[in-house]
Amino acid sequence: MRLFLPVDPARRRRRRRRLRARPVPFRVMLPSIVTLLALCAGLTAIRMGVEGRFELAIGAIILAAILDGVDGRVARLLRSQSDFGSQLDSLADFVNFGVAPAIILYSWRMDELGSLGWIAALIFAICGALRLARFNAALVGEPPPAWHSEFFVGVPAPAGAVTVLLPLTLWKIGMPVPDGAAILVAIYTVAIGLLMVSRLPTLSGKKIGTAIPRESVLPVLVVSVFVIALLVSYTWSVLAIGAILYLVHLPFAWERFEQRRRAFSGHQGQNGSAGGAERPAAGEGQSPKD
Predict the structure, then answer these.
(1) At what angle do helices 26-50 and 83-94 cross, to 10 degrees?
(2) What's the CA gap between 164 and 252, in Å, rounded?
(3) Contact between 194 and 125 (Cβ < 8 Å)
(4) Of all helices (H) and strands (E), which one includes residue 19?
(5) Which fold has domain 24-206+223-266?
(6) CB neighbours (10 Å) of residue 7?
């Protein structure tokens, strides 16, 4: 009995040629291109923050958040999801929504605290990394019940980035900055970071825009144009109000989660088995997008 098969160099060369000759469809590359554009926006936000151009810095983060929402939908639409795209997206999210907001807030106000302000910035960035790592690890586990797709565990990275910039947006709309603002900003930054790694359920909004009733198409278009016009005309006010509303929604999201959990538990009891509830198909309700 032979333990080792003979090596055929010609066979290996033929296999390498086949792999090299196989073209990669552009539709597979497109989501990653969008992700790289988002990463460029996040890196630009860091530069603008260091240079003190905070308007452009926040604008770059908003652009990164928009592109972050687009690339996942593009991947699902074109059926071009891949492990490479998922990992690239997580790395981009860490830079865009973990590192960039921390540096912007440090450059804006927390540098007055010296090392203490830098520690607050580090905690927020590290919380962003831990959250993304936990999210990626959850994708390879047993799929949760289908209704879990309505919620995130903790504040998602893009929402955390926009929310943590609330003190800066309030300053931009004219709110006076007190003498002790630096320590307040540091405490707020750490608090948002902890919310990102918490087990607090938040509404995901994954199903928004996936299917719109035919009679609602025109109203949705009008509302979308109206919101975009408000964002362009009253950028800082819209961002501040949006961040405040997001924080206000957290208790309601928790209550909604508890209602769904109780209904699910009651349904399981009626079926008489833990496996009686509907579970999503492989990959359904889960996405490499955070």
Answers:
(1) 10
(2) 20
(3) no
(4) helix 9-21
(5) Four Helix Bundle (Hemerythrin (Met), subunit A) (1.20.120)
(6) 7
**Contact in structure between 61 and 165 (CB atoms under 8 Å):** yes
DSSP 141: S
Give domain limits for the chain: 24-206+223-266
For residues 11-21, b (16+ Cβ closer than 10 Å) or e, as one string?
eeeeeeeeeee
Amino acid at 15: R
CB 199 within 8 A of CB 153: yes
Residue segments in the chain with a per-residue pLDDT below the cut of 50: 273-288
Phi-psi region of 129 (alpha: psi -120 to 50; beta: other; left: phi over 0): alpha
Average pLDDT along the chain:
81
For 170-228, what is each residue's pLDDT tens digit?
Answer: 999 988 878 788 999 999 999 999 999 998 888 886 656 556 677 767 877 888 888 88
**What separation in angstroms does the CA of 11 have from each of 3, 23, 277?**
20, 21, 50
Burial of 237 (0-12, 13-18, 19+ CB in 10 A): middle
